[in-house]
């Protein structure tokens, strides 16, 4: 081909270049934490709480150690009993479901919408029983789940809703009355991850929980700190899941940049969509009218059984790509005793077709052109 490979190695996520653009501020923030030695629950953690509450227009933010803990703590706060059923998507990362099983609850996996890859309200309805206590929708790849329909279902059946916003931080949902809310602030509780590759990522593990419910906020704040409000006095059984002050300090630098990061991701996604629109074997992401898309991943569908062949071709050309996710949750050995072997057809088809291209805030036109021209060449 005439398109030459960029001199710089193409990354799925370019955290180093992103860091270099904010290195002075980040380094100073880290140094400040070290010099104050306030490593746990330091001022930066309080600043992050306040900053997120303002940024996402939510009453309470409870930082914690990671996104998986965030889901576990949210479930612990709801006074569930062993055997209670939690409905969630079959097509997501295992963290969404593993804490359900860990707490002695029963995960119930349902299918997704083939266009936006998020949990299907119709599939939820089919699986509701008198044991169903919680629905956990996932804002997959950065696109909001159909929250208005989910909330209506939950209200009808007196079910709680916990949003998994690990991939959707900063995305907004528009209701039919045109009001907007940020992902993670719509249901009873929202959870998120600050894993380094997330749209708002720290330099280690980190997470947070969001809610507008005062009682739940107080309880979750105790749970993350050994069930305690006052040191050495423990009201309930909790866990140790505090966010390190150093990670909070880094996040305080990046939080004001999130809108710009999201805009950069959308610009790259627009380039991909425009460049690949004539490739019949590829279906680029579909964005519903109710959702913003913050493109944690740019995930397309590759038709006619060509996905793995295309992935290998791109790797040979120096272009990384990933399959998120190659095995649905209901097919994982860890969950086989929760399922009866029934098919979840859309999710099972997606695991054969989805392919994610490089997506991060530092993608330039030269790199995007090289990637898309190679894809088009493959399908000639």
What do you see in this structure?
46% of the residues are buried. The chain is built from 13 helices and 14 strands. The chain is globular. Strand 6 (172-174) and strand 7 form a beta hairpin. The two termini are 12 Å apart. Helix 3 packs parallel to helix 9 (245-254) and helix 10 (258-276) runs parallel beside helix 13. 37% of the residues lie in helices and 15% in strands. Strands 1-9-8-5-4-2-3 form a seven-stranded mixed beta sheet, with helices on both faces. A three-stranded antiparallel beta sheet has the order 12-13-14. It has helices spanning 15-21, 23-36, 43-55, 67-76, 95-102, 121-127, 147-157, 214-223, 245-254, 258-276, 307-316, 345-353, 365-378; strands at residues 60-64, 85-89, 106-110, 132-136, 160-164, 172-174, 180-182, 189-193, 207-211, 228-230, 233-234, 282-283, 298-302, 354-357. The chain has two domains: 19-256, 3-Layer(aba) Sandwich (Aspartate Aminotransferase, domain 2); 257-378, Aspartate Aminotransferase, domain 1, CATH 3.90.1150. It is an alpha/beta fold and 380 residues long.
